[in-house]
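In the current project phase, we have settled on a layout for protein records. A sample record is reproduced below.
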Amino acid sequence: MTKRTIDYYTNLGLLEVERSPSNYRYYDMSAVERLHFIEKCKKDGMSLEQIKKRLIDENAEEIDVLELRLKIKELESDVTKVLAQLDHNQEYIKKNISRESLSLIQSLLLLLN
C-alpha cells in the first residue's frame, strides 16, 4: 500500500493518525488492522463510502458496549452498598418484609454472587 493511499484514507476519515511534535505520522497496531480491514472490504466490492459507514457503525457499537460496562460497574457498586446495608439491617428486614419479598431478595443475592 502506498503512502498516498494511506494519506487518502486518512483524509476520508477511514484512518486515524497521531502526529509527533515534528509532524511525523504514527500509526498504531489498530490502524494497521484497519488498513487490512479496508483492503478486505474493497476486495469484497465495497465502496469507500460503505466501508466508512461500516467502520462508524462498528465504532458506535464499541462505544455502546463501553457505556454498558460503565453502567454495570455503577450498578455493581450500588448493589454492593445495598448488600452491606442488608447485612447490617438483616434482623429488621426479616421482621418488616413479607416472605415473598424476602425470597425475591435472596434469589437476587444468589444471582449476584
